UniProtKB/TrEMBL annotation:
UniProt domain Fructose-1-6-bisphosphatase class 1 C-terminal: residue ranges: 200-333
Source organism superkingdom: Bacteria
Fructose-1-6-bisphosphatase class I N-terminal domain residues: 4-196
The keyword Hydrolase appears for this protein: yes
Family stated for the protein in its record: Belongs to the FBPase class 1 family.
Catalytic activity entry: beta-D-fructose 1,6-bisphosphate + H2O = beta-D-fructose 6-phosphate + phosphate
Protein name: Fructose-1,6-bisphosphatase class 1
Pathway of action: Carbohydrate biosynthesis
Matching InterPro entries: FBPase_C_dom, FBPase_class-1, FBPase_N, FBPtase
Binding site for Mg(2+) 2: D113, D116, E282
Enzyme Commission number: 3.1.3.11
Keywords, comma-separated and alphabetical: Carbohydrate metabolism, Cytoplasm, Hydrolase, Magnesium, Metal-binding
CDD domains found in the cross-reference section: FBPase (cd00354)
Length: 335
């Protein structure tokens, strides 16, 4: 049977779920097209002169990679003129990007991590793009928006998704009625529906964490990982496997595909920071996807989607994936 394209899928979603406004469908198609362009640039590697770092640092204090900046520009240029957005925000931009007055403004806000897993760019390991869609305030046509307009809890997201630039180029998406996966047909240049209603198994034997931070973890995290490592003779009574790709999109894609628990918890290296990952354009979109797939996502104790943001680039601890494991970590934090 002929597989559906992203366009056909979105039109059918719009027909079935009146909650999917035409503007959101247009927005997702524009972002998906931009991800195709980013994936094309990524695929060129050294041949396209896109590897390596720039002299610049971003607001996160990270040295920017050429692809961080190129991906950000591709997403800005693709989304500025369409009339579906009131403003944008990105890991790579200190403050929000308003729609220039020469273009019409829309009713949505787009937030993105244009290139996730930057430390993997130069070593040819999977990287990706993460995006989140929020509603703009009703009066957004009458005034200049501010950062404050973006500070909505993740539960307010209208849509969320990511692209993975790996052996396949994948797009994983939710508009609030389940999680769907698309594979890029590189000959035709179209996103083809290949995974319907992705579900995360409630249990797992696979954890993902950067073990080099072990001595800096809080006791409940240390206890949880120690018990995973104790295997069949330990309190968990089963052996665990470990994976850590250091691209959130690739680690979360594995969790969505075969289960697992992904953790980037608070650690004592920078005690004032709640974690490394950013709430608005990493943790929130991934948490919406994980919950839509039957998993759970917390900061160790609180549901991530309930967190009221206070700053555009604020960080948060992340524990997400197979529901029973995430709940065990929460229990250890509360004991
Ligand atoms: P980004 O490349 O967008 O800055 O994000 C990198 C993040 C995330 O993708 C990954 O899970 C984590 O950093 C890896 O951190 P470590 O290198 O400390 O393991
Ligand atoms: Mn990232
Ligand atoms: Mn990034
Ligand atoms: Mn970065």
């Amino acid at each position: 049977m002929k597989r559906k394209t992203l366009t056909q899928f979105l039109i059918e979603q719009q027909r079935e779920h009146a909650a999917l406004p035409a503007e959101v469908r247009l927005l997702i198609e524009v972002v998906a097209r931009a991800c195709k362009a980013i994936g094309h640039a990524v695929g060129k590697g050294a041949l396209g002169g896109v590897l390596g770092s720039l002299e610049s640092e971003n607001v996160q204090g990270e040295v920017q990679k050429k692809l961080d900046v190129l991906s950000n520009e591709i997403l800005i240029e693709a989304n500025e003129w369409g009339g579906h957005l009131a403003a944008m925000a990105s890991e790579e931009m200190e403050t929000i990007h308003r729609i220039p007055n020469r273009y019409p403004k829309g009713e949505y806000l787009l937030l993105f991590d244009p290139l996730d897993g930057s430390s993997n760019i130069d070593v040819n390991v999977s990287i990706g793009t993460i995006f989140s869609v929020l509603r703009a305030p009703r009066d957004s046509a009458e005034r200049d928006l501010t950062e404050q307009d973006f500070l909505q809890p993740g539960s307010q997201q209208v849509a969320a998704g990511y692209a993975v630039y790996g052996p396949q180029t994948s797009l994983v998406l939710t508009v609030g009625s389940g999680v769907f996966g698309f594979t890029l047909d590189r000959e035709m240049g179209s996103w083809v529906l290949t995974h319907e209603h992705i579900r995360i198994p409630e249990d797992t034997r696979e954890f993902a964490i950067n073990m080099s931070n072990m001595r800096h973890w809080a006791p409940p995290v240390r206890r949880y990982i120690d018990e995973c490592l104790a295997g069949t003779t330990g309190p968990r009574g089963k052996d665990f496997n470990m994976r850590w790709i250091a691209s959130m999109v690739a680690d979360v894609h594995r969790v969505l595909t075969r289960g697992g628990i992904f953790m980037y918890p608070w650690d004592a290296r920078e005690p004032s920071k709640p974690g490394k990952l950013r709430l608005m354009y990493e943790a929130n979109p991934m948490s919406m996807l994980v919950e839509q797939a039957g998993g759970a996502a917390t900061d160790g104790t609180r549901r991530i989607l309930d967190i009221q943001p206070t700053a555009l680039h604020q960080r948060v601890g992340v524990v997400l994936g197979s529901r029973n494991e995430v709940e065990l970590v929460t229990r250890y934090h509360r004991e």
